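Incident review: delayed structure delivery

Summary: a single-chain prediction request sat in the queue longer than the usual turnaround. Root cause was a stuck worker, restarted by the on-call engineer. No data loss occurred. The affected request and its eventual output are reproduced below so the record is complete for anyone auditing the incident later.

Affected input:
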Amino acid sequence: MDHVLSTHLFVKHRLSTALLDRILAAGVPAVEMFVNRQHLDYLNKAQIHELASWFRDAKLELWALHSPMYSDDQNGRSGPNAVIAINEPVKNKRVVMVDEIKRALEIAEVIPCRYLIQHLGVPNEEFDERKLDAAFSSLEELNSFARQRGVEILLENIPNGFSNAAKLNYFTNVTHLSNGYCFDSGHAHIYATSMNGSLESEFDLMRSRIRSTHIHDNNGTLDNHRFPFLHTDGTIDWRRMMELLRSCPGQFPLNLELKEAEEIPQPLESIRTVFEKLEKA
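Output delivered after worker restart:
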């Protein structure tokens, strides 16, 4: 399977060309850029054009962008008004949030990519039928804006009442939207554990629309984006997970979306190990 690394691993640091050089030197052929303003500031034209100039000459592909979750440069710590949620029912608030995502999508005008990964709601949010129309309106507008830039928006399964596999299918069925999915192994594991379900059932429900992945581990409770095989508290059965992923050959890559950890001081060296172990699983 093809290999991709999300820059989520370095979200506490500014995304620079030096960091991209290190990722490329580690043998990673493609990245998903995590759009968080303390890391990748979509409003900072100097940063975007510096990265665009680097990508034009580099052998590193930009596979996808991860849509911003907050509008501030403090990872949401400035307050609740910084949260970006496309299912916001108050129209004037939602318009501002959609505009933030559009600014992030403009990155694709100078650094081409295939996908934008989008959350439907925020973590731990309960399902509310009234918010479906808001999400539909947001995505109709964003899908058009993204297509004009050669980008497809993928919906990610996250731990909330809108975004488990069954609810994503319900949403796309009632809205008739054709968006594909980004299958997140860690989030599926958390949902399956909480519902006494299985990763297999979550994957199978999403299977026909999966276009990309987020690969990470956890203990079934904490969404802490652990390194598969290298963290002993992860409980995903990776042999079975890889069997599921390989059952859809050629459709999507292994995209590691990991979190920096003190016990892994050389993460890029460890990335090689994780990819090797996943391929052998």
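Verification: The two ends are 12 Å apart (CA to CA).
Action items: add queue-age alerting; document worker restart procedure.
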